Amino acid sequence: MAAIIDGKAISEKLRKTIAADAAALAQRDAVPGLAVVLVGDDPASRTYVSMKEKACQKAGIYSQERQLPEDTSEAELLALIDRLNRDERIDGILVQLPLPKQIDTARVIESIDPRKDVDGFHPYNFGRLAAGNPLFQPCTPYGIMKLLDETGVDLTGKEVVVVGRSNIVGKPVALMCLARHATVTICHSRTRDLPRRVVQGDVVIAAVGKAQMIKGEWIKEGAVVIDVGINRIEGNKLVGDVDFAAACRRASAITPVPGGVGPMTITMLLANTVESSKRRLQG
C-alpha cells in the first residue's frame, strides 16, 4: 500500500517557519500584509476567504478583507486594486476567483502590481516562471513542489505526467517540474489514449477536475501520485481526480483528498506574502 503524503502535517510544519519569519519582520516594522478581495457572496469562496483570514492571524500577517457586492462594476474593482497597489501596508493582493460575469478576469489580474501578485497569476510572473527566474509562483503548484520535497522525491530524470492544462495548476506545475530536470508530459481530458500516457509517469499530478477520472490500473507500480482534484460525489463525499483506493495498491506514495494538496495552497500564499514583505524591506 502507498505511503500517505500528509499535506496537513507538512503545511503545519511550514507555517511555523512562516510565522517565525513574520515575527522577525514585525520587529523591523515590516509586518507582512495581505489584502483579499471577494466580489459577491459565493459560499465556497466565502469559506475559503475566511480560512485565509484565520491563517493570516495565526501566522502574524496583517490581513485586510474587502468584500464587494455581486453587482460591482469592473471599474469599481479596478479602482480598489489601484488603491491597494499603492497601500504601503499591503505586500500581497489576492482577488478571489471566480468573478461575476460583468468583470473581465484577465484584466483584473493584469491590474495587480506584479510585486504584490502573491497568487502568481499575472502574465509578468507567469513569464518569469517560464523563463526559469520566478518572482512569485502560483500557490497550488508551489505547494505541490513542497510536498514532493518533503517526501524526498528527486525529479531529476523522472517522467512526470501532468493531467490538466489550466493556468492555475497544470501549466505552471509542468514548468516547475521542468526546472527540476524532469521530463514532463502534459495531458488533459481530450488526450487520446490517456491511460497509456499516465502509466508512463514516475510522478503523476492529477489536476483535471473530474471525479476519480484517473483509474488505479493507470498508475505505474511505485509511482508517486499527487491528486489536486476536489470533487463532491453522491452523499456529499469529497474525492479527488484519482481513484484513491485502487491507486493506493500500485503507487509508492499518494496524497489524500482532503488533507493532501489543499492545506498547502493557503500555506504557500502566506509564504509568498512574507517573501514580498522581505523584498519591500530590502528596497
What does this entry look like structurally?
- The chain is of the alpha/beta class.
- It has two domains: 29-115, Rossmann fold (3-Layer(aba) Sandwich), CATH 3.40.50; 139-262, Rossmann fold, CATH 3.40.50.720.
- It has ten helices and eleven strands.
- It has helices at residues 7-26, 43-59, 74-86, 105-111, 123-130, 139-151, 170-179, 194-198, 244-248, 262-282, and strands at 3-4, 33-39, 62-68, 92-95, 159-163, 183-187, 203-206, 224-227, 231-233, 237-239, 253-254.
- The strands form three sheets. A six-stranded parallel beta sheet has the order 1-11-8-7-5-6. A three-stranded parallel beta sheet has the order 3-2-4, with helices on both faces. The chain has a two-stranded antiparallel ribbon with strand order 9-10.
- α2 links the parallel β2 (33-39) and β3 (62-68).
- α1 (7-26) packs parallel to α10, α6 packs across α7 (170-179) and α6 (139-151) crosses α10 (262-282).
- It is globular.
- The model has no long low-confidence stretch (mean pLDDT 96).
Features:
283 residues, 2 domains, three-stranded parallel sheet, alpha/beta, single chain, Rossmann fold, globular
